[in-house]
Amino acid sequence: MTYFKTLPLALLLAFFLAPLVTPAFAQSDPPERPSLSQITEAWLKSPHGDRTSEAFTHWNEDGEIPGRCAVCHSSTGVIDYLRGPMSTVGAIDHPVMPGTVVDCTSCHNAGAATLAAVPFPSGATVSTFGKSAVCAVCHQGRASTATVQAATSGMDEDTVSADLGFINVHYAPSAATGMGTVVKAGFEYPDKVYKGEFAHVPDFKNCTDCHRPHSLQVSFEGCTTCHKTAEEFAAIRISPVDFDGDGDTTEGIANPISTLHARLDEAIRLYASEVAQAPVVYSSAAFPYFFNDGNADGVASEDEAAFPNRYQSWTPRLLKAAYNYQLVAKETAIYTHNPHYALQLLYDSLEDLSAQVDVDMTGLARP
Ligand code: HEC
Ligand code: HEC
Ligand code: HEC
Ligand code: HEC
Ligand code: HEC
Q: What is the atom index within ligand 1 of the atom nearest the CA of 66?
């Protein structure tokens, strides 16, 4: 193990990337091809190469990353997963050592090169990601409609149950939201129809059509050929419908999503106080995100946002709405990955809570 750890990066690169890089060098200097050192530099500055990130250091004290976390939080884990049958979605059957990141070999290995079909937590499999398939392995979240249904089935919608705990979809599940109802990352209410893949336009469809694969950045200039009037990503707007009822249909599509998200926060707090009879408050920075709001002031103070004070008065109806609230909170670019799916989930969560508490749905439109 230590031998591998001390191997210089350059040697590792040469070993794993030789077959990939050679043809690029063999070509007659195509100008748009970044050099290996430019690629390495871009990657080092990206979140994937950030050795100090919580996403890679979280397990340092434990000394090992469990198999159910290793696939997305280590290069060793994802390589083992892609090499195997992927029979348990997002997990391998053994722990790995902490200390790796999403390095070159995570995406450039035999398993990733031949990866065609990506299984999701819902059980659905998607085979249309092309070269971006490896992105979908890690950016798929860890739960779906089925997870929430299984936890709440057979229970009365408005009775607090000690058997319920918050269900966290996990972070940046962009590939899952992008596929909409195909993989059901949101909690989808029964009898409602949901948007499938946000196919956008053919040249800007898969992850690496928009994101550079190494810096992970998206070039805004690439968008303005079509979205001519927008000045930032969040200002892009095509949909003509006034989803949030504010009379403005030119504001970026990110705007009605934030408006409905804020309204859902209010509705969740109202329902918790009136029906579950235990005030709740959300903190985006502290696990598991929903806490008892002892003084009912709607603000998560430092002493409130602590694990022992986690919210434990869940009813099925409240849990479903909170699950969707968290999905939209932790997929900060859902407005570009699947804006209408986000609006549908928020609208339906608000509508469902309105069966029990006073939620103002006036002017809201469901896509
Ligand atoms: C299917 C892939 C996947 C699995 C499995 C997974 N994670 Fe993650 N996790 C991610 C991604 C992607 C992010 C990065 C989100 C971002 O961009 O900040 C993340 C982020 C995190 C973070 C950082 C959160 C923050 O707010 O900075 C922690 C902690 C974490 N995961 C813990 C875990 C634990 C514990 C497990 C196992 C029980 C686990 N993860 C399993 C994909 C996964
Ligand atoms: C998160 C996944 C990921 C990581 C990490 C990653 N790559 Fe890549 N790399 C890709 C993808 C995807 C492409 C193909 C881009 C395309 O053709 O659309 C690519 C393409 C390349 C190419 C071909 C040239 C090009 O730009 O098309 C080289 C060389 C390369 N990567 C080297 C590296 C090196 C070196 C590292 C580590 C410093 C690295 N990659 C890390 C995903 C990754
Ligand atoms: C092996 C798992 C894995 C793969 C494969 C992977 N990612 Fe990631 N990605 C992560 C983790 C973990 C983070 C969080 C890193 C951090 O916090 O520093 C992340 C972060 C990101 C971020 C930054 C998110 C933020 O919060 O700012 C973007 C964008 C991203 N990935 C896109 C991609 C794309 C595009 C691909 C495919 C080319 C890809 N990822 C492949 C695990 C992965
Ligand atoms: C239509 C273009 C487009 C496509 C396709 C796309 N993204 Fe994004 N993505 C963006 C933009 C724009 C942002 C916001 C970037 C910013 O604010 O700098 C973003 C942000 C992100 C983030 C960070 C914020 C978050 O959502 O948590 C991640 C992770 C991410 N994308 C992953 C992916 C993955 C994985 C895929 C493929 C399944 C993908 N993206 C497909 C345009 C796209
Ligand atoms: C070739 C033209 C074209 C390019 C380039 C383009 N888009 Fe789009 N975009 C469209 C079209 C057409 C739609 C409507 C698609 C639909 O509703 O299915 C759209 C819709 C959107 C929406 C949803 C808007 C709404 O109001 O529903 C977002 C967000 C978006 N694009 C982001 C981007 C980003 C980010 C980029 C650059 C990375 C980009 N687009 C590049 C043509 C383009």
A: 37
Given a contact cutoff of 8 angstroms between Cβ atoms, the answer to whether 275 and 356 are in contact is yes
CA 252 remoteness from chain centre = 21
Cis bond upstream, residue 288 (ω within 30): yes
Distance 134 CA to ligand 3 centre (A): 10
Query: What length does the chain have?
Result: 367
Which atom of ligand 2 is closest in space to residue 102's alpha carbon? 5
Cβ contact 182:123 at 8 Å: no
Alpha carbon of residue 293 to chain centroid: 27
In b/e form, how buried is each residue of 98-133, taking b as 16+ CB within 10 angstroms?
bbbbbbbbbbbbebbeebeebbbbbebebebbeebb
Cα pseudo-dihedral 131, 127, 83, 138, rounded to 10 = 70
Rg (the chain; Cα; Å): 22
Q: Find out whether the beta carbon of 174 lies less than 6 Å from any atom of ligand 4.
A: yes
Give the type of residue at 184. Answer: K
- Ligand (nearest to CA of 67): 1
What single-letter amino acid sits at 245?
G
Q: pLDDT digit of tens for each residue in the chain (367 aa)?
A: 333 343 445 445 544 554 444 343 333 444 478 999 999 999 999 999 999 999 999 999 999 999 999 999 999 999 999 999 999 999 999 999 999 999 999 999 999 999 999 999 999 999 999 999 999 999 999 999 999 999 999 999 999 999 999 999 999 999 999 999 999 999 999 999 999 999 999 999 999 999 999 999 999 999 999 999 999 999 999 999 999 999 999 999 999 999 999 999 999 999 999 999 999 999 999 999 999 999 999 999 999 999 999 999 999 999 999 999 999 999 999 999 999 999 999 999 999 999 999 999 999 999 9
Distance, CA of 326 to CA of 330 (rounded, Å): 6
